[in-house]
Amino acid sequence: MNNIKLDFTIKDLENISGIKAHTIRIWEKRYNLLEPKRTETNIRFYSNENLQKLLNIVLLNNNDFKISKIAKMSDEELILQTRALAFAASLNDEAINSLKLSMFQFDKIMFNNVYHKLLEEKTFQEIFKDVFVPFLNDVGLLWQTDTLKPAHEHFISNLIVQKILINTEKLQFNIRNTTKTYVLFLPENEIHEIGLLYLNYELVLRGFHTVYLGQSLPLNNLDYFLESNNEICFITSLTIKPYDDKVEEYFREIEAMLGKSDKTFIATGRKVSLIKDVKLSSKIQLYDSIIDLLKVI
Fold first, then answer.
1. CATH architecture of 173-294
2. pLDDT in tens, 162-221
3. How far is CA 112 from CA 41, 75, 158, 229, in A?
4. Could you give the CA distance from residue 96 to residue 214 in angstroms, rounded to a whole number?
5. Burial profile 270-287: b = 16 or more Cβ within 10 angstroms, e = fewer
6. Which residues on adjacent β-strands are paired with residue 231?
7. Is the dihedral of CA 148, 149, 150, 153 positive or negative?
8. What pLDDT does residue 200 have?
9. Beta partners for residue 284, in sequence order
């Protein structure tokens, strides 16, 4: 549990909750809603319990509960009211806030209840694009501000991955277009696969045959497909790897791998912007995001 962040600054609380630090201090002083501790140098810090309570307060406040009324609730009542609202969440912003709360509380029940409530109004595609994508963008910002720790991110990512896999499994007998095979993989040491897993779901949904090879795959592992007589298109997503100064080198390896074959290659992700001005083989196509790629498939 050493990777779990247990102490938070007021700036952390602002980043996570979306409530300005000034407002948090007012709630703290006027209503005694939070009880920060202080370091030996008199700097405020907040516990994980403080964070959870603040997220509960924000959810209630966003649903027309006045702060003065919230302040009179016991901790138990606050949690019960929050759960009831979280389970009934239908609007995207409320769902995202509930997912954030479930992440920091490691609450799988809350996550699943929010997800199933969303399914009453949205398709899985809509949930992913309207709720999961903006939520994951928020998670990325929390990483950048050092507010989030690996345990939280791993917990919520694995829950989202489970939903993608379940929905993909339902489509396994949906394959209609067998003239082309998409082979999906991530570069060596790349483990951020939610986007690629969702792309695999979309391709299967559209009736394509896919081969999902997953995380951290060396290019030389693709030899079997290069020797195939089938129409093959490789797809990868570059989020963290390769390092910035290695991106062009990686694509030169791809060009060499493709050689004179008729195979094609698609790359997407944040690292793609680093190679856009470099002249590459016509067999290689670049897209800034998976959403952009889906528009042309």
1. 3-Layer(aba) Sandwich (3.40)
2. 999 999 998 877 667 677 899 999 998 888 899 999 999 999 998 889 999 998 899 989
3. 42, 23, 12, 43
4. 27
5. ebbebbeeeebeebbbbb
6. 180
7. negative
8. 94
9. 265
| Alpha-helix residue ranges (DSSP H) falling in the chain | 10-17, 21-31, 48-61, 67-71, 75-87, 92-104, 108-119, 124-127, 133-144, 150-169, 194-205, 223-226, 247-258, 290-294
Specify whether the CB–CB gap between 200 and 230 falls below 8 A. no
pTM: 0.71
Rounded CA separation 180/2 (Å): 46
Instruction: Read off the tokens for 20.
Output: 């300005």
Return the amino acid letter for 101: L
The predicted model gives 42-48 an average pLDDT of: 82
> Domain boundaries in the chain?
7-167, 173-294
String of b and e for 113-132 (b: at least 16 CB within 10 Å)? Answer: bbbebbeeebebeebbebbb
* Among candidate residues 151, 148, 142, the one with its CA nearest the CA of residue 3: 151
- Kindly report which listed range (156-165, 202-211, 241-250) carries the lowest average pLDDT score: 241-250
Query: DSSP for 227-272?
Result: T-SSEEEEEEE-SS-S-GGGHHHHHHHHHHHHTTSS-EEEEESGGG
CATH hierarchy code of domain 7-167: 1.10.1660.10
